[in-house]
Structures are given as C-alpha cells and as structure tokens.
Amino acid sequence: MTADAEDAFAAVADELRVRILRELWDADDPLAFSDLRTRVDVRDSGRFNYHLGELRGRFVEQTDDGYELRFAGQKLVAALHSGVYTEDASVGPVPVDGTCFDCGGTLEARYEDELGRVECTDCGMNLVGGGVPPAFVDGREDDLAAAIDGYLRTQIRQCADGFCPQCSGPTTGFLEENDYGPQAVFECERCGAAFRGIASMLALDHPAVVAFYHDHGRSVRNARIWELRWFDDVERDGDAARVTVTVDGDELELVVDDSLAVSVA
Fold first, then answer.
1. I need a surface site. Which of 6, 89, 193, 223 has the fewest CB within 10 A?
2. Start and end of every DUF7347 domain (predicted)?
3. With bands split at pLDDT 50, 70 and 90, how would you rate the model's confidence at 85?
4. CA distance 55 to 32
5. Is 224 domain-assigned?
6. Measured between alpha carbons, how far is residue 154 from residues 165, 168, 212, 245 in Å?
C-alpha cells in the first residue's frame, strides 16, 4: 500500500462524496453540474463543487457531456453494493442434501463474518469455504450451499486463469501437501493473497472432464462439489498429483503438475 492508496481512501471519507458517486452510478448518462447537485440535494454550490473536485480525476471524469464515473469510481460503488463494508449478514446453519465424501456424515451450510462454508457436522471437515460478499447470499437463504459453491468455483476459475480474485494481480500456482493430500495453491504476485484447495478442484472445468460427464448424460458444472464422490480421490505422483474422475463406474485420470497445469494421464 502506498501514499496514493491513503489519498484515495481519504477522498471518499465523506458522506457527501459517497452520495455523489452513488448518483453518478444510478444515472443513465453523464450529468451536468447543476443536475448532479440537484440529485445530491446540496444547496451550497461552493461546498458541492469542493467535494466534487476531490473526486474528480481519480473517481469522477468531467467530459463535454457532464460528469461520469471512472472505472475506479465504478469499482468503489460496486464494492459498496456488495455489502462487504456495510452489512453484517448471517445465515444458517441450514441442512445440505448429500453426505461428506470423507466420512459419510451429514452436511450443513452457514454464512457469518463474511465467510461461507459447507461442512460436515460429524468430522468437521470443511468441504467448501471462503470469503463471500453479503450481496451474494442475499435472497439465497433457501439455497445457501449452492450459492457458496457457485461463488467459490468462480474464484477457482479466476485463479486458474492467472489473476487474483481480490486485486486482479497475476497469480502463480504450485502444489503443496497437507493432511487431505495434494493441495493446489495460488499466490498473488501483487497483493500476496493465497488461495488453497484440494488439487482436484482444477479438474472441475477441464475440457476432458466436461466431455466425460457429457458422454454420460450429465453436467459436472451443475454438480455441487460435495456431490462429486471422486473429489477427494487425489494421490501424489512424484512432483505431480493424480486425480481420478469416476462417473457410472468409468474412470478418467488427470495429472496436475507442480505448476498446476492439468492434462489427461
């Protein structure tokens, strides 16, 4: 973090400036100075101009057609809508259809402290878990587990595609061993965030696995992680990990190398 970051946070540390950003977000087109001031409901033109000036250049762009949000302003307002900075949501625990693929125990989903989890009530294994914005679980109380699963799978895809879900910086991947077997680890070169999960998570979107499921009249993308009985069938194979995907008794073997590249064995 640099002094520029401190200046950016200071620029929006005012309720009036946040209102300006929200009004520009809601506008379909750029807004003239007077129209924007009317929407924000500030009578003092000088005071309004000062606060608008503090946003201009970094969060707000002045064009021939009026004022509009820059990309940074859009990202900031979107973050406010996500509820990460403004909401303290809690959902569950709620029962989940299916059983733990480690011990066969019952499952439940919960969301609290910005963390979503699907875990086993018997052995305590966390089958799916990670940070989830409150907005993503809003209205999904009846399907909480699926919402958590879907959100975290999008993060896996982002990491595998080479960019950090937190800051969009470049990621590098490698294998790591723990009590649950070979783990895939992605680290961001920019912010230092790390994302970990069992190596089989990299097979979820591999073309061979998608086709394998399709050939059996199924969709791996519609299946929840805890429904994939092969998900923990991962073994270390030298510097790589071997994943065995099983559908209707048929098997497909994949290899995840130390850089997390996936190939058919």
1. 6
2. 6-79
3. confident
4. 15
5. yes
6. 9, 13, 21, 20
